[in-house]
């Protein structure tokens, strides 16, 4: 029921629509965790400072503790539970974190992984960061160096200090994505000959 302090909304989460009645002050993080039982996104600081609650909203990184659920209506929300393709395989970023021990206690890991997925796409799209030396468009794409990864992932804190392995995992996933893209481009060229 809609009141002056609550609304009926529909959230599109991981490809499924969920109808909810929410108080206007309910954060997206609380709606995901408390109402939809999607507890992968973690509450660390609840103040937008640790990144543990990071989810993707229309493909962009968002700290869900600072977003009101009502403001997320009509947006495509992806949580760590929705990253893996159907069929059992993990998302390449999840697999890289697993293979390279990109975690210790794991509390920050869902946020790190969601953030890394978006970081890799942001970099592939040519978005510069504060660590990018030359931001002129004609200078071409920079490589995703450890320094770039540390800068772009700086909103995600890890109290266990697993940063060395996290940077390695993000770098491996980015390399795999780049190799896949080169492979797809080569196949398209071959098909055109
Ligand atoms: S819980 Fe959202 S940024 Fe820390
Ligand atoms: S793995 Fe424990 S906080 Fe990051």
Automatic annotation (TrEMBL):
InterPro entries: 2Fe-2S-bd, 2Fe-2S-bd_dom_sf, 2Fe-2S_ferredoxin-like_sf, 2Fe-2S_ferredoxin-type, 2Fe2S_fd_BS, Aldehyde_Oxdr_Iron-Sulfur, Beta-grasp_dom_sf. This is 2Fe-2S iron-sulfur cluster binding domain-containing protein. GO terms for molecular function: 2 iron, 2 sulfur cluster binding; metal ion binding; oxidoreductase activity, acting on the aldehyde or oxo group of donors. PANTHER family: OXIDOREDUCTASE WITH IRON-SULFUR SUBUNIT (PTHR45331:SF2), OXIDOREDUCTASE, IRON-SULPHUR BINDING SUBUNIT-RELATED-RELATED (PTHR45331). Pathway: Alkaloid degradation; nicotine degradation. CDD domains: fer2. It comes from the Bacteria. The lineage of its organism: Bacteria, Bacillati, Actinomycetota, Actinomycetes, Kitasatosporales. Keywords: 2Fe-2S, Iron, Iron-sulfur, Metal-binding, Oxidoreductase. Residues 7-83 form the 2Fe-2S ferredoxin-type domain.
């Amino acid at each position: 029921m809609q009141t002056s302090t609550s609304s009926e909304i529909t959230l599109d989460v991981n490809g499924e629509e969920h109808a909810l009645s929410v108080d206007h002050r309910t954060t997206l993080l609380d709606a995901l965790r408390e109402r939809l039982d999607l507890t992968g996104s973690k509450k660390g600081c609840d103040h937008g400072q640790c990144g543990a609650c990071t989810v993707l909203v229309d493909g962009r990184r968002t700290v869900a503790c600072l977003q009101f659920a009502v403001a997320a209506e009509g947006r495509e929300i992806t949580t760590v539970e929705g990253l893996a393709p159907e069929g059992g395989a993990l998302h390449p970023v999840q697999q890289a974190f697993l293979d390279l021990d990109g975690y210790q206690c794991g509390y920050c890991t869902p946020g790190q992984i969601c953030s890394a997925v978006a970081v890799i796409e942001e970099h592939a799209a040519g978005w510069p960061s504060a660590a990018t030396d030359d931001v002129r468009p004609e200078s071409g794409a920079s490589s995703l160096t450890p320094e770039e990864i540390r800068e772009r992932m700086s909103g995600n804190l890890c109290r266990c200090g697993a940063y060395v392995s996290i940077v390695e995992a993000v770098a491996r996933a980015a390399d795999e994505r780049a190799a896949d893209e080169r492979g797809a481009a080569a196949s398209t060229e071959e098909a055109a000959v």
